[in-house]
Design a protein that fits this description.
Blueprint: H1 2-16, E1 34-41, E2 49-55, E3 62-68, H2 82-89, E4 94-98, H3 110-125, E5 131-141, H4 143-153, H5 156-159, E6 168-174, H6 186-191, E7 213-218, H7 227-238, E8 243-248, H8 253-258, H9 270-280
Parallel strand pairs: 3-4, 3-5, 5-6, 6-7, 7-8
Antiparallel strand pairs: 1-2, 2-4
């Protein structure tokens, strides 16, 4: 247990210093059992690229899982998330890990627009990699969970790419900030265009039934308040949307995503919970 705590502390320090917590622990991830198609462009900007993980020997069509990582909308790199790609390609899914433009290059809604661009690319090209374009799930951790849930909460982002909300079969948000007004830090006030910009919050875009969602968080998350998950779930349910909330006891903001790494999966049941959610839809 002390080893896990030490690694989690190291991951937290890496995150605060501008690094991904997955970078160093990619060494723990098996390199066999899947193929990776790297740096596929879904837009013209250098940050608009994704990697696709395809199970070795699998025959399609397979479910497709798009992942958007966290990093306060200011940092992150798709190459650091080998563990996520392996976690779900090993379960028979085509997995895409996408970069997106970051602040200060863009402000809201640039993050959501890029998430829609990555989704559109997968809808148009998933079949080339054995994926089923009719079974695309969107997931994310922290800021990436915000991006994923915003994409499903506000259809205009997908529609701007020539699509529709039905392109998404389901959404998985991990420790996401969905309703965190008012802004108090200058960087976020600038990033989200004001202290109390309701338009910038996913919760305020839910005005009808939305795609099924799995919203998970940890009871020890001191970075993103659990109330974000509770309020988002309540808003979705008020319109009759299907939503499942899971709170992992004793798990923090880094621990929840770390629990997808080989060797640490006993920390939570997250991987199996995500697999079950995807298979049930």
């Amino acid at each position: 247990m002390s080893k896990i705590k030490s690694l989690m502390a190291g991951c937290a320090a890496a995150l605060l210093s501008g690094c991904s917590p997955f970078g160093p622990i990619n060494l723990l991830v098996p390199k066999s059992g899947y193929a990776v198609h790297r740096a596929l462009s879904y837009g013209s900007d250098p940050r608009q690229k994704l990697d696709i993980y395809v199970p070795a020997g699998a025959k399609g069509p397979m479910p497709v899982l798009l992942f958007l990582y966290g990093g306060s909308w200011r940092q992150g790199n798709r190459s650091d998330y080998l563990a996520f790609g392996q976690a779900f390609s090993s379960a028979g899914m085509v997995v895409a890990v996408a970069d997106y433009r970051l602040y200060p290059q863009v402000k809201y809604p640039g993050f959501a627009e890029d998430a829609a661009g990555a989704l559109a690319f997968l809808h148009n090209h998933a079949a080339q990699y054995g994926g089923d374009p009719g079974r695309i799930f969107v997931s994310g951790h922290s800021a990436g969970a915000y991006n994923a849930v915003m994409l499903a909460s506000e259809p205009k982002f997908i529609e701007a790419k020539g699509g529709r909300l039905g392109w998404i079969r389901g959404v998985i948000g991990l420790s996401g900030p969905y309703d965190f007004l008012p802004m108090t830090e200058p960087v976020y006030i600038d990033m989200f265009e004001g202290t109390n910009n309701l338009d910038s919050m996913p919760l305020h875009h839910v005005n009808g039934v939305r795609q099924p969602m799995l919203l998970a968080t940890g009871t020890d998350d001191s970075t993103v308040d659990q109330g974000n998950t509770d309020r988002m779930a309540a808003k979705l349910k008020s319109f009759g949307s299907e939503v499942k909330v899971i709170k992992y006891k004793g798990t923090g903001h880094i621990g929840i995503i770390l629990s997808l790494v080989p060797g640490f999966r006993k920390m939570t049941t997250l991987r199996q919970d995500m697999i079950d959610f995807i298979r049930s839809h």
